[in-house]
Amino acid sequence: MKLSLIHQPAFPASASPYRLVDDQEHEITWANHFLDAQCIRQLSIRSLRAYGYDLLHFARWCLQSPSRTLLEMDESVVFELNRLTTDEK
User: Fold this and answer.
1) Across the chain, how many H-helices and E-strands are there?
2) 40, 67, 74, 85 — which has fewest CB within 10 A?
3) What are 5-16's pLDDT values in tens digits?
4) Contacts (Cβ under 8 Å, ≥6 apart) of 55
5) pLDDT, tens digit, for every residue of 37-84?
6) φ/ψ (deg, to 5) at 20
7) What number of CA atoms fall less than 13 Å from residue 34's CA on the CB side?
8) What's the confidence (pLDDT) of residue 71?
9) Amino acid 88: pLDDT
């Protein structure tokens, strides 16, 4: 599955214009709910975009290790992701 971040400025003010979608343009619900919550907090468009790309990177990483679900993830998993992304730079 290929994931991407798209920009749709015609969304209502309560929804983030940045949306995570799969290759068939189906929304990634959990990620877009998070982006919508940040939009309601009135974060800047640039912050929403940055969060969108962070979520895109996280979702792609999750697809590479499908044995874990979001509910099973704890801070050790976040530390592992952080270590891997830091090593990539």
Assistant:
1) 3, 2
2) 67
3) 999 988 888 999
4) 5, 20, 28, 31, 34, 35
5) 999 999 999 999 999 999 999 888 888 876 777 777 788 887 887 887
6) -90, 130
7) 16
8) 78
9) 65
Do residues 21 and 6 lie in contact, with contact meaning Cβ atoms separated by under 8 Å?
yes
Residues 6 or more apart from 18 whose CB is under 8 A from it?
A: 5, 6, 7, 8, 35, 48, 49, 51, 52
> Is 16 in a helix, a strand, or coil?
coil
What is the model's pLDDT at position 2?
94
DSSP tag of 23: T
CA–CA gap between residue 6 and residue 67 (Å, rounded) = 27
The distance in angstroms from the start CA to the end CA of the chain is 25
Six-digit token string for 67:
């044995």
